[in-house]
Amino acid sequence: MTSKCVISLDLPEDIVAPLRDQFDLQTWSGKEAMPEVTLQDWLADAEGLLCALSTSITASVIAGAAQLKVISTISVGVDHIDLAAATAAGIPVGHTPGVLVDSTADLAVGLMIAATRRIAEADRWMRTGQWSQGWQSDLLLGMDLSQATVGIVGLGPVGEATAKRLRGFGCGILGWNRTPKIIEGVEMVDLDDLFARCDIVSLHTALTPDTVQIASRSRLASMRAGATLINTGRGALVDEAALIEALSSGRLRAGLDVFETEPLPVDHPFLSLDNAVLLPHVGSATLSTRMAMVTRALDNLRAGMSGEPLPFCANPEVSGLRG
Length: 323
Ligand code: GLV
Fold this sequence. Notes:
Blueprint: E1 4-7, H1 13-20, E2 24-27, H2 36-43, E3 48-51, H3 59-63, E4 70-73, H4 83-88, E5 93-94, H5 101-116, H6 119-127, E6 149-153, H7 157-167, E7 172-176, E8 187-188, H8 191-197, E9 200-203, H9 217-222, E10 228-231, H10 240-248, E11 253-256, E12 276-278, H11 287-305
Parallel strand pairs: 1-2, 1-3, 3-4, 4-5, 6-7, 6-9, 7-8, 9-10, 10-11, 11-12
Helix pairs in contact: 5-7
This protein binds glyoxylic acid.
């Protein structure tokens, strides 16, 4: 009998087709996230799960999936999966590190420039017919990246790639990492110092219990007036209520690709703030990066379904593989 594999998101048919020959697939085709009760029902007799950030894989989902041999997510982050529960159940979790580093670092720098040079705001302004005079000496003034001090919170691969790009702009670069690191052109500092001394703070840590709201109310309050917060990591790294207050008062600017609630509700306060550049979680959204992520995720899925070690495993301590 062919093993059953659940795909909890709507993927293009050319990606799914090769899996049909190998597995009995049950695929969620809704545009909204798959409801947990449906996921639990489908996983009751499944050996594989291919998912992405939109599906929360909770401890109770894992507890009910007695046959599950592998969870493979099309993402580097695994904060949507209860990793401890998967590990305790002996289920390896595959993810996609490495391949989205450059795309995400490019987007972080793009957001820095967009927020500090007010690119999205200027585009909106033009489209609403407000450009009635020609060149104006004080129109939409911003800040030079070359004159800024930029702080990078988390110097994993994406943070390091962001620092590498910033060296080319000639700005000052401060860095903080849980385990200190030596990186060319980066002055390592204490986290509170970094928030207080920078014109731009960019978040690149993984979301873990230790990093929830690492951009806390008090750290946001310590940022320089006119400074910019960039987030391409996870929404929950930021105290969003405090950030909204700082943006509403005009004290800070922001460039955000991620939010605590995704999709962002249509009436969310961020949407009415002109000094925030907002993107719909597209850090890795280039064709070649998404193809590389899918390839990695399918390799992980196939390996787990065959009881082999996953090429990219987020919980390598799982030893006694199921099945
Ligand atoms: C994107 O946010 C990812 O974790 O891949």
